[in-house]
Specification:
This protein is mostly helical. Helices cover about 65% and strands about 0% of the residues. The longest helix is centred in the first third of the chain and has 50 residues.
């Protein structure tokens, strides 16, 4: 089976997924337990609020008149359902904040060297290169979040992209720019000018004792 074949890539993706599930399973169980407990607490409090509102009596407000008691009796169920909605929002945002923080903490958990070694020994070289690419600068330990990102990258053709980068780097690194035979002056520099020829001045005959002929 070819190392880069779709069958091998799917097999490596399953191995990464199984490793992720095994390492994250304790936190997943805790997360599920917290969600179940939060749902039970929400349900018990919501039922208590509704029952309390249904059993609430306004007979002690006779001094305000029968019309006031009638209005309060009619509005009472909606009032307590509104309180239940507020309680639901409180529980929802509290649980969502906790789950978000727990997911971030789980993804930041480093993978033990033994677990990483056991995984990479079963992966192809191409998929292992994807793990190296995801790790990046390697200033921090390889985490569950890195492994999850590697699983996503393998499914989105990161192997082909890494191979293309290698080909492009090889082309650019081995190519040499053409050398011109004549040296071309840089753009914007003044054109070279010809050197001026020296002016030859004939000697004065009088200084040498010669005779000067008259000019007619």
């Amino acid at each position: 089976m070819n190392a880069t074949s779709p069958e091998r890539i799917r097999q490596d993706s399953r191995l990464i997924g199984q490793t992720l599930l095994k390492l994250a399973l304790p936190r997943l169980i805790i997360r599920a337990g917290v969600l179940v407990v939060a749902a039970i607490i929400w349900l018990l409090v919501a039922l208590w609020l509704l029952n309390f509102g249904r059993d609430l009596s306004f007979e002690g407000l006779q001094a305000f008149g029968p019309q006031v008691i009638e209005v309060l009796t009619r509005v009472n169920p909606y009032l307590w359902w509104g309180i239940v909605v507020i309680w639901t929002l409180i529980v929802f945002f509290a649980v969502r904040a906790w789950v978000t923080g727990d997911i971030a903490a789980t993804r930041a958990k480093p993978i033990e060297a033994t677990d990483l070694s056991a995984l990479t020994s079963q992966l192809s070289d191409e998929v292992t290169n994807v793990l190296r690419w995801v790790w990046g600068s390697r200033e921090e330990p390889f985490t569950l979040g890195d492994l999850r990102q590697a699983s996503i990258e393998v499914r989105h053709s990161r192997i082909d992209k890494i191979d293309l980068v290698r080909q492009q780097s090889r082309i650019l690194d081995t190519s040499t720019p053409p050398q011109s035979s004549a040296r071309t002056p840089p753009v914007g520099s003044p054109a070279p000018t010809a050197e001026p020829k020296p002016v030859v001045v004939p000697p004065d005959p009088r200084s040498t004792g010669g005779r000067i002929e008259p000019n007619l």
